[in-house]
Amino acid sequence: MTVRYPRPLVPGDRIAVTSPSSGVDDTLRARLDFAIGCVEKRGYEVVVGRCMDGSGHISAPAAERAAELSAFLSDPSIRAVVPPWGGETAIDLVPLLDWERLRTAEPTWMVGYSDISTLITPLTLLTGVATVHGNNLMDTPYRVPDGLVSWLDIVTMPAGHRFAQTPPGRYRSAGWDDWAANAEISELTLDAPGRWTRLDTGDASNTHRTDGTSDTGGHGELVVEGRLVGGCTEILAPLAGTPYLDTSSFARTHAPEGLIVYVEACEDNAFSICRTLHGMRLAGFFDAANAVLVGRTSAPDSPTLTQHEAVIDALAPLGVPVLADVDCGHVAPYLPLVNGALARVVHTDERSEVIQVLK
Known about the structure:
22% of the residues lie in helices and 22% in strands. The protein is α/β, with parallel strands linked by helices.
């Protein structure tokens, strides 16, 4: 069974905005309006749902959020659903969604990251429909750095399309922009140099051989292929071992070539991340992984354990390549990954690249 890709968006299509987790406070409505305007400038009609209240940690009761999200994903006139951002407890929607209805509906793009991982990752695993782990709506106005693509470009790509991304080599070292004070900021602050880090060997020239990888030309070039699946570590961990995060079943059905699993930490310290990743491994989340990509994080180290050490402590038993500091998490810039896409990851001392094919 093949992964299903939504029809490519064209100008005039409708994109829905709803908050399955946290809504938007009044102080940030100007940023929301600016972000919507950026989407509209691409020629799309934006439909804003009712579940948008930002006065608390959720935008509406769970039943209302689930009903609105299901309605948008099942409406053939809606071609993409993009939340403003994540939040904390979108997990309460998971048992309320009509998964059979979503499985039989015409595929619709859903985009997001952070708490939205709670929804887009199960959506791909349970329905076979590709989703985009990429920047949320409120981040959309930022200019995309050279080498990366925007979710607005990905949703226009037809099935079978191939695209490559290379990290820009710089990232934001600390802090966040004040959208309340400057709602129209569109330039990312990328003030620190950084590249991907090989954790399983500590040296890109010492290629670890495993299924799906190769050592090319004797130069230690890591090449690994598989279908992408992943999301935010703290958000996905509570679903590990449940039917909603059964990566092994997805691999048997959709990815006989194996998976490239990606994870990224938002804020938990290294001790918590170590325990969390151990638990996810024991629950089978990484069983079909040919490699693991770990997003760059600003989450704190612990007194005797760094974030990198936490990852390798938990994942070394897998015996697969582990690449850290990938630009796919809460630290800008944002490298979108398509859940379900066939990917090829290359990493050497000279370059890093991820190629995705929508097939």
